[in-house]
Design a protein that fits this description.
By secondary structure, the protein is an alpha+beta fold. Helices cover 30% and strands 28% of the residues. Strands 1-2-3-4-5-7-6 form a 7-stranded mixed β-sheet. The two termini are 25 Å apart. 26% of the residues are buried.
Length: 174
Amino acid sequence: MKITFRPATVEDCKMIREWIKINGFTRHWYYFDKIPRLSTLETKMSKKLKEPNTRANIVLIDNVPIGYIQSYPVDGNGNWTKQVKVAENMASIDYFIGDINYIHKGIGSKMILEYIEQVVKKENYAVAMISPDPGNAVQQKLMAKCGFKYIKTVGIPYENSKNKEAVYIKELEK
């Protein structure tokens, strides 16, 4: 099994929407309560792809797309950043496995660790951060398996989101 990443495109939104239809966990990517319209996903992806320091990728296993992963710097002065920033030179990682045939197969940890090696470290970040729902025990175990340490739980400022997210960090070796 070879895990690789390719840059996401607006055209990938059709596939991402299909994943959202089948796998409700993928909705948390943008805090959707319902299945979003394709045009909504395309607008969000277009904006995401224009952010200069964001790396948006489709996860491939043996060249088959199975999920999405992105990273971006935790910088600036926004409310979210003020709550979650616990280190300098820190990248936040968001991800999901969209294809249900790859869920609960031990791929999540391999995907995250491979992404850190292939993408995040090459961007010269010193710390990686992931912020799952604090009530998700499966995610907590996954973070530990990947070497992330729980730091704190914070309120998040999105009006249509969950009330809290946990902050887990991993110091990266050069």
